[in-house]
């Protein structure tokens, strides 16, 4: 028996994330979410963007929890979650736009490279890649909280994980035919970066 997972961070940031998504995706039809975590963002945001078909994805171990959220919500616009590992071949799935929250700092730079490479290949012209999370600026932490988070990630999660620099991310995007068109300041020293193919 799988209990429905709850991430406290999602409860804190889901409203501001949904508000930004509504600004950009109000007339869109299909969104691929990378690293759906518990599935809370999918449910909260899909409920507020009913015209948007939301495709959650995650590592295999998290699929059951996401499906509990999806089934309990009873929303027609959330598709069954798919297994997706940034470092493995991606499933064939429509991706008019791509969104990911609190993923980039949890994975290695190689995984981030793969994310941008796939986004650059899969997104249609004018398709968006939207990334929420903490970023360094000028290779400096933007807060002591982010410094502590980075150290925790590297010691407790993955030595290759860590907060990425916005300049490096922008350069990586350009290599993959993606242009940074907006950066939104979000709660708790996070940003929402919006790239367009």
From TrEMBL:
InterPro entries: DUF938 (IPR010342), SAM-dependent_MTases_sf (IPR029063)
Coiled coil (residue ranges): none
PANTHER family: UPF0585 PROTEIN CG18661
Name of the protein in question: Methylase
């Amino acid at each position: 028996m799988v209990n429905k997972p709850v991430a406290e961070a999602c409860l804190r940031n889901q409203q501001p994330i949904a508000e930004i998504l509504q600004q950009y995706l109000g007339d869109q039809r299909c969104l691929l979410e990378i690293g759906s975590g518990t599935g809370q963002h999918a449910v909260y945001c899909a409920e507020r963007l009913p015209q948007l078909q939301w495709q959650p994805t995650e590592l295999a171990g998290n699929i059951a929890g996401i499906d509990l959220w999806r089934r309990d919500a009873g929303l027609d616009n959330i598709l069954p979650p798919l297994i997706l590992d940034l470092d493995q071949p991606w499933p064939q799935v429509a991706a008019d736009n791509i969104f990911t929250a609190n993923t980039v700092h949890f994975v290695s730079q190689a995984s981030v490279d793969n994310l941008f490479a796939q986004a650059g290949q899969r997104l249609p012209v004018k398709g968006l890649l939207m990334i929420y999370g903490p970023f360094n600026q000028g290779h400096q932490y933007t807060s002591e909280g982010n410094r502590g988070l980075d150290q925790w990630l590297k010691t407790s999660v993955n030595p290759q994980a860590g907060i990425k620099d916005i300049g490096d991310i922008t350069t990586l995007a350009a290599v993959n035919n993606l242009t940074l068109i907006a950066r939104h300041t979000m709660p708790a020293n996070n940003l929402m970066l919006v790239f367009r193919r």
